[in-house]
Design a protein that fits this description.
Shape: elongated
Number of helices: 6
Order of helices and strands: HEEHHHHHEE
Structural class: alpha+beta
Helix content: 25-40%
Number of domains: 2
Bound molecules: iron/sulfur cluster
Radius of gyration: 18 Å
Number of strands: 4
Strand content: 5-15%
Length: 143
């Protein structure tokens, strides 16, 4: 999850209201001056989003955007971030799910699915079990 996602879902789709919430707390984002005839400027990545490479540990700009928050509250799954999609995949299967199965449900690569689900384990939202008779670890929603 990175600035790219905010750009794709909010800025490039014309939904940005120029509130600047995304730029607060991130030195890589700058609010631009409004273009002629516009009431507000839009955010721009002026530094390097430190998490573009693996997209795992930040996403604050995306999570803090009121447009994203409102859409998620309304249940618009298009605005869920990859980690939330993976968590939903885990929640959808009661008796445990493997990484290839997560990948199948979410459409993410196995590497991305693996990274996200392991991060969810670190965050204690998902529990991992490694069966003796099987190579693939199984993931469950943490209770
Ligand atoms: S994902 Fe994090 S580091 Fe990257 S632009 Fe957004 S807030 Fe900044
Ligand atoms: S937080 Fe969202 S609405 Fe506000 S400036 Fe950033 S992209 Fe635009």
């Amino acid at each position: 999850m990175s600035f790219e996602m905010l750009k794709m879902k909010v800025i490039d789709t014309g939904k940005c209201i120029g509130c600047g919430m995304c730029a607060r707390g991130c030195k890589h984002i700058t609010m631009q001056e409004p273009e002629e005839g516009k009431k507000f400027g839009i955010p721009k990545l002026t530094g390097k989003c430190i998490l573009t490479r693996n997209g795992l540990d930040c996403g604050n700009c995306y999570d803090n955007c009121p447009i994203v928050r409102k859409a998620k509250k309304k249940g618009d799954s298009q605005f869920l971030n990859p980690r939330e999609h993976v968590l939903n995949a885990v929640k959808s299967i009661n008796d445990g799910i493997t990484i290839p199965e997560i990948s199948k449900i979410t459409g993410f690569s196995t590497i991305k699915s693996r990274n996200e689900v392991l991060r969810l384990v670190e965050l204690k939202k998902v529990r991992i079990e490694i069966p003796l008779n099987q190579q693939d670890p199984i993931f469950f929603e943490a209770q």
